[in-house]
Design goal:
Length: 289
């Protein structure tokens, strides 16, 4: 049976609904970022840009960096966007748009996020580069898919117990990044981390400006959580969706994080732009090394 028009939605030019891309527009190595303005900051290092498309929060360039074809795309903020972006990225390589059928031979993409984050451990300072080995998602996205087979349930159970996690919130889910990409991207210039992804920047990450939150000690409890010597290192808003959707769809993913803020000490980097540029250069070099 072919996939119906209401499920696989194509634009008049044959491109996929939200990303606006045609299958030939996409490279097999994809860099994702949250901020649409970070895309040209990456592709200014390219020798050639072949494709440029922009719809909603999805700003997308495909081009060549040191002989390698790479697509760079923004996803906007949050795992709700990741659901759309990753489903459509996968459709571009693994669904035949003419026949509206899943291809027999599937393609696996290499996907590298270059993002920003807040550390919750005092000893992971601002301006560090952190590679997420594992992620815990507080966003609930993976519970909408058949994901039980690879979620690390024992870690989630222990986290709920140690932190007294409210049952009114989504049950946390734990997913591993690609070990192969982790090896490629991790070095003595980076810290290996266990990232937590949340559904917002303020209350959900324990920030209080005017609105009180139910548990002001939440970040401290998350930071103290210990599972066989592993601790949660940092908070951001996309990695759980990226790791989860990649596992489900058969792609390899890794998340690179520039530590902008240290929530334990209250510090914020003096130069966010230089920090992001540094992580971009580091990541591009590792991709082609
Ligand atoms: O810098 P990006 O990639 O957007 O990532 C982080 O910054 C945003 C919040 O300021 C969230 O998207 C968070 O995950
Ligand atoms: O504290 C931070 C910094 C960047 N991005 C986040 O989501 N949180």
């Amino acid at each position: 049976m072919s996939i119906q028009a209401s499920e696989l939605i194509l634009n008049a030019d044959g491109s996929i609904y939200h990303l606006n891309l045609l299958p030939e527009d996409l490279a097999q190595t994809v860099i994702t970022v949250g901020d649409p303005e970070r895309v040209p900051k990456i592709t200014r290092h390219f020798s050639k840009i072949e494709v440029q498309k922009h719809k909603r929060e999805f700003n997308i360039h495909t081009g060549i960096y040191k002989g390698k074809r790479i697509t760079v795309m923004s996803t906007g903020m949050g795992t709700d966007n990741i659901d759309i972006a990753f489903t459509e990225l996968d459709a571009l390589v693994n669904i035949d748009f003419q026949k509206r059928k899943v291809k027999e031979n599937l393609t696996s993409l290499d996907i590298i996020r270059i993002g920003t984050t807040g550390s919750i451990q005092e000893d992971i300072p601002v301006d560090a580069f952190l590679v997420s080995e594992l992620v815990m998602g507080f966003d609930g996205l993976l519970h909408f898919y058949q994901s039980e087979q690879f979620l690390k349930e024992a870690i989630s159970e222990e986290f709920v117990k140690q932190t007294g996690w409210s049952s009114k919130k989504a049950f946390p889910y734990v997913v591993e990044g690609s070990p192969e990409l982790f090896e490629k991207m991790h070095s003595e210039e980076t810290v290996a981390g266990f990232t937590a992804t949340n559904i917002g920047f303020y209350g959900p990450q324990g920030r209080v400006l005017r609105l009180p939150i139910p548990d002001e000690k939440m970040n401290e409890k998350i930071a103290k959580f210990n599972y066989e010597g592993r601790r949660i290192t940092n908070l951001e808003m996309e990695t759980s969706g990226i790791y989860g959707m990649s596992k489900l769809l058969g792609h390899k993913a890794i998340s690179m994080n520039a530590v902008l803020a240290n929530r334990a000490t209250g510090e914020f980097t003096k130069d966010p732009s230089a920090l992001a540029d540094g992580l971009i250069e580091y990541t591009l070099d590792r991709i082609v090394s």
